[in-house]
Design goal:
By secondary structure, the protein is mainly beta. It contains no helices and ten strands.
């Protein structure tokens, strides 16, 4: 990590998927804290992520994931705080917020927010009806399967990944550094 890398961050995107081609893999993934994904240096690819999927997804609607060595993923299935799911043909706003806990540097909070009806029909602007769907607190030493390393570094490799759809519409993608909440 470099001092100018994004560490505590907010990654926001609005997406609309069309044509679920692979129901077992269909999801939208927001990846942060990452480096370049190369075969030459698989450890440089380290990143964390949160996913949003259709209601019948085998891995659940929302998960936290780590990829500390490319392409080996760990996923932790999360319990959604309310009923929401990725739907074919419907816009959804997704916001991943991640920060190191100011009270305990051995913890990174990762929270996924959803806006299920994101655009004001009269103006076309975002409605900002964000609701916290899921959260994963990454803790130094706690295993997610193959990894127990706390992902607290920064990085400029921020990725929106989609899997299992015919095509995807994307709008208003942004990423920015934030001040951690107290």
């Amino acid at each position: 990590s470099e001092p100018t890398d994004l560490r505590n961050q907010e990654f926001t995107v609005y997406v609309r998927v069309h044509g679920i081609l692979d129901p077992a893999r269909a999801m939208v993934t927001l990846k942060i804290r990452g480096g370049a994904h190369t075969e030459r240096d698989p450890d440089l690819a380290s990143c964390t992520m949160m996913t949003f999927a259709p209601a019948n997804a085998p891995g659940g609607v929302t998960r936290f994931g780590k990829e500390l060595r490319h392409p080996d993923y760990d996923y932790v299935r999360l319990t959604p705080a309310f009923d929401a799911a990725l739907r074919d043909g419907a816009w959804v706003g997704l916001k991943l917020v991640s920060w190191t806990d100011p009270a305990d540097a051995r913890r990174v909070v990762n929270r996924l927010y959803v806006d299920a009806d994101p655009f004001d029909r009269a103006t076309g602007r975002p409605r900002n009806g964000w609701r916290a769907l899921s959260e994963y607190v990454d803790v130094a030493g706690r295993s997610t399967g193959r990894y127990a390393t706390l992902a607290d570094w920064g990085g400029w490799q921020t990725t929106l990944r989609t899997d299992g759809f015919r095509d995807v519409d994307v709008a208003l993608l942004s990423v920015r550094e934030i001040v951690p909440p107290r």
